Amino acid sequence: MFSFINKVMSKKVSMWFFLLCIFIGILAMVMFGSAVRHVTKGGFLLGNIGILIDNIAKFPGKVIILFRSHSTEISPQILEANEDYFLNDYNLSNDYEGYLLVSSYDNDGSYVYLLDVESKKKIYEWRPPLKEIYKLAPKFVDGINTPRYYRSQHPLLFKNGDLVFSSGDGPLLRLSKCNEVKWIISDQFHHSIHLDETTNLIYAIKTFKKSKKNIYFLEDGFSIIDPESGNVLKEFSIHDILTNNKDNLGLLYGVGEFEKDRYHINSVIPIKYTDNFFEKDDLVISIRNLSTIIVFRPKEDKIVWSQTGPWINQHDARYLGEGKFSIFSNNIIRGLPQSYEFLIDHSDIYFLNLKNNTIERPFKNIFKKSKQRSGGIFRPIDDDKGIVELHSDAKIMKISKKYGVMWEHQNYLGNNKKGNINWSRYIIKDNINIKIFEKKCVVKND
Fold first, then answer.
1. Domain residues of the chain, as ranges?
2. What is the pLDDT along the chain (446 residues), one digit of tens a residue?
3. Residue 140 near residue 167, CB atoms below 8 Å
4. By CB neighbour count within 10 A (0-12 exposed, 13-18 middle, 19+ buried), where does 108 fall?
């Protein structure tokens, strides 16, 4: 075998053949690169060959991700920090009226803690039992689901101390106060999780599995889930919602190239009360990559209102009642280098009023000082104040139109380090019974 290889290697190759091989190689690289660009831009002209080319181009990246994701190092989620601090610009007795349910990291990985804002103390912690989760959902063990990246994203707290959360791009599960998995849904859930308090149903965003219909794009949607059993009661595809309402076809197919991640839903929130504008159980849906907010009425399979911009690539749109919305807008321009993403503006919170068709941005001065790029959420408390999470800054703030920043919180770990945060939640004191956390968990013997 070696002698054959030596004979081949020792043969002389004419210059013209050598140059021809170089030319063919360069031509092949250019054609392959052009094909990859066409496919990644959402082009369909290459058919099944395009899918094969896309998989080949992704293979080196998958190997790198696989290698990195199984590392036990949590450093991607541990950031530089100065101190754990609260900034009190003024002092009122009702300043600290709630709790923060924070999804974050320490040196052992992802965990969730409940913080009493007034005492500034962590009063309880949950930590996802990843080994058990991997056994129950064996198809989700790599990438974002490994200990290095697992997020415990947007935890939802129940009155008995249970949590519901996802990995950020994997299974949705209910975890007891004692860190026991009560149920798990082995699907690709991501972004927001909301409980409709009137129907006691969970609305959770997910990406649907590939089929012949959606092979060329990511089909986002949401599931309606029974929180006790974990049974999925109904599912909606955003692609179907938009295409069934024909007025949206120009927005979907007539503006720019059709990209794979055309929709990218990041919040679905039920409307609680009927008013002069919308009905109870209508859903406010934020479609980030279309910079569009819609109000969808499931019982009629109908979009009853929609608006594109002036927000750009927004997160977390909420209906406040009587025609008012709050929208956390990232305001980034996707596809540009990071240094040019904010060509137009900075991240901000928009308040839309349908009564007089006005837009207000009362927190502009606060956001000018922020490094926020993506992933922020805003939870209004009243007409003046709200809680905002700045994912890129890894901090949570209480902000006021009148007073500005009232306080800030970051998960300080010591040694000038802090844990990243992933869609945390603010809970008013009247909505939680802290005494349930005084009862200790009983350790089960195997």
1. 11-69, 80-437
2. 556 555 545 566 577 766 777 778 787 777 766 666 666 655 555 556 666 656 665 656 555 555 555 555 566 888 888 777 776 555 554 566 789 999 999 999 999 999 998 888 899 999 999 999 999 999 998 888 988 889 999 999 999 999 999 999 999 999 999 999 999 999 999 999 999 988 889 999 999 887 777 777 788 999 999 999 999 999 999 999 998 887 877 887 777 777 778 889 999 999 999 999 999 999 999 999 899 999 999 999 999 999 998 999 998 899 999 999 999 998 888 777 766 666 677 889 999 999 999 999 999 888 887 766 667 899 999 889 999 998 878 899 999 998 888 888 999 998 889 999 999 999 988 888 888 988 888 766 55
3. yes
4. exposed
Q: Helix H segments across 77-223?
A: 130-136
Burial class (CB in 10 A: 0-12, 13-18, 19+), 75: exposed
Q: What's the rounded Cα separation, in Å, for the pair 206 and 123?
A: 31
- Residue 125 forms beta bridges with which residues? 113
Angle at 114 between CA 108 and CA 118, to 5 degrees: 130
* 80-437 CATH fold: Methylamine Dehydrogenase; Chain H (2.130.10)
> Across the strands, what pairs with 390?
395
Measured CA to CA, the distance from residue 31 to residue 272 in angstroms comes to 54
Q: What is the pTM of this model?
A: 0.83
Closest by alpha carbon to 422, among 119, 191, 95? 191
Q: How far apart are CA 301 and CA 268, in angstroms?
A: 15
**Residue pair 152/111 in contact by the 8 Å Cβ criterion:** yes
Determine the Cα angle at 330 with ends 75 and 287, to 5°. 105
- Dihedral over Cα of 313, 76, 116, 152: its sign: positive
Query: 38-43 long-range contacts, Cβ below 8 Å, gap at least 24?
Result: 40/260, 41/257, 41/259, 42/216, 42/217, 42/257, 42/258, 42/259, 42/260, 42/262, 43/257
Tokens representing residue 220 in the block: 């986002």
